[in-house]
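dumping this here so i dont lose it
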């Protein structure tokens, strides 16, 4: 059964014992020897495949190349055998924290992997790169890796359910540092005390503002979760050496809650698995069929439906206005409620367009779908008829869609909304969608064959046919992998692919 941890700020003179702190309870969950349920194992395999798919599609992009070059400029640390880097040969390794960095950027670059949305946003698949990197470095087997990944997902999703970071303009990766540190702790079989110290250090070093996702969005958007993963690896290393961390990190009168979140009078109810209870959080998350911010997924599906049923709406000459009635989150983060002029700028960066639902809905209406490359090109964004249609699209917060967004009932939780299209001839078209087609409650929920199909689609341009089959075989045998096989759990680019990618020089 689930237990609820009551979280509040404590004055220093209250002397909150570590056993009463959230970080300690998270560490207890990580140290719990409970096994992973079969359906959770299956979903972990799906997400390992999904991460590799989106990493393959981003191998030659500049931010990924820069992070990869940084990692390759660092030698394997002396305490283990090192970790692999996406795209590179199996014997080309680096230190685990730098592998977590490079692979984390590759996974996040296209914003195309799994998601969980509740009080906060998250991409829980960001836990996979740092935990896999450590597993490879220390020679862990597939069974230990699965247990570590189950913890990473569980802790991040539990935190995301209860604690809003964006409300106070703190970036959502502040929940990722602790979850990745906890997952590594499970992987390594560390004791509660050590994991507790690692969680505190990981949180302390990964709190930053949300400016990375505001206005003109920079390439740091992909680096932010990779940095959190890198910090988690380093935090575990420090804790294993006996070093301590700020405490109480969440509850202290100068801690995260008091000064970065809801303030000294704040309270939260954090749902956590009880001792001996299976870690099943991953099953509440969902992946992306389309390479766009998750709150755009359902809207893309609705737009492609309208493209077929009402093709006249693709021509801006026929359209007076389009209003997307949606949740508070969608309106203010990726909609016109953000008041970011960049969301309507045809010269905006890919990262900015990815967070512009007016742009995304316009393109999907006109094209009847979405492509992870073609839908973002400068030529596509600058097309005259697209710009005209795009600038007729606005969003509006709808109280009912906001309520459904925050609902804890999975049968009514929704990430879509209702579209109202006014045509120049005076007619109106209305339609709505609650969840994306690929969502577990959607029209076509993603299953193993869909994850494999997505991997093949994204990997075929950069991996050989033999490499695709090699990786899929390993991934689908994940819990039975030997330490040697875990060290091969990566993707190796086809000959010449990386040679054509940027290779920027820096300090290292």
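and the seq i came up w/
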């Amino acid at each position: 059964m689930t237990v609820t941890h009551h979280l509040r700020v404590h004055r220093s003179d209250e002397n909150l014992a570590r056993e009463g702190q959230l970080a300690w309870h998270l560490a207890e969950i990580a140290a719990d020897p409970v096994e992973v349920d079969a359906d959770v194992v299956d979903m972990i395999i799906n997400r390992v495949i999904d991460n590799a798919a989106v990493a393959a599609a981003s191998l030659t992009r500049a931010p990924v190349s820069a992070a990869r070059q940084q990692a390759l400029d660092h030698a394997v640390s002396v305490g283990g055998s090192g970790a692999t880097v996406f795209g590179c040969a199996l014997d080309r390794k680096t230190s685990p924290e730098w592998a977590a960095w490079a692979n984390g950027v590759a996974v996040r670059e296209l914003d195309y992997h799994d998601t969980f949305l509740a009080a906060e946003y998250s991409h829980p698949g960001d836990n996979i790169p740092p935990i896999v990197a450590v597993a490879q470095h220390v020679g862990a087997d597939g069974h230990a890796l699965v247990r570590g990944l189950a913890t990473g997902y569980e802790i991040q999703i539990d935190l995301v359910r209860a604690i809003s970071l964006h409300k106070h303009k703190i970036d959502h990766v502040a929940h990722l540092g602790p979850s990745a540190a906890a997952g590594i702790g499970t992987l390594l079989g560390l004791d509660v005390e050590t994991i507790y110290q690692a969680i505190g250090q990981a949180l302390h070093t990964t709190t930053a503002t949300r400016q990375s996702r505001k206005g003109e969005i920079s390439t740091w958007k992909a680096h932010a979760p990779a940095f959190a993963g890198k910090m988690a690896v380093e935090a575990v290393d420090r804790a294993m050496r006996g070093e301590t961390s700020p405490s109480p990190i969440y509850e202290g009168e100068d801690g995260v809650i008091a000064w970065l979140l809801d303030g000294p009078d704040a309270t939260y109810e954090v749902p956590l698995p009880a001792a001996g209870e299976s870690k099943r959080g991953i099953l509440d998350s969902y992946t992306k069929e389309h390479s766009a911010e998750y709150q755009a997924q359902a809207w893309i599906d609705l737009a492609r439906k309208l493209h077929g049923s009402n093709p006249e709406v693709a021509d801006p000459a026929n359209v007076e206005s389009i209003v997307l009635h949606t949740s508070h989150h969608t309106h203010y983060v990726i909609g016109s409620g953000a008041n970011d002029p960049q969301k309507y700028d045809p010269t905006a960066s890919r990262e900015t367009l990815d967070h512009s639902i007016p742009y995304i809905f316009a393109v999907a209406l006109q094209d009847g779908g979405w492509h992870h490359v073609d839908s973002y090109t400068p030529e596509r964004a600058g097309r005259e008829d697209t710009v005209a249609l795009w600038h007729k699209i606005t969003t509006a917060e709808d109280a009912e869609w906001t309520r459904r967004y925050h609902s804890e009932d999975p049968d009514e939780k929704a990430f879509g909304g209702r579209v109202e299209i006014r045509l120049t001839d005076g007619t109106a078209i209305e339609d709505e969608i609650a969840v994306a087609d690929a969502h577990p409650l959607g029209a076509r929920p993603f299953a193993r064959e869909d994850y494999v199909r997505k991997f093949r689609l994204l990997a075929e341009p950069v991996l050989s046919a033999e490499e695709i089959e090699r990786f899929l075989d390993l991934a689908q045998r994940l819990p039975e992998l030997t330490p040697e096989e875990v060290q091969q759990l990566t993707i190796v680019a086809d000959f010449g692919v990386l040679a054509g990618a940027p290779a920027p020089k820096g300090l290292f």
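The domain at 294-433 is CATH 3.30.1330.120 (60s Ribosomal Protein L30; Chain: A;).
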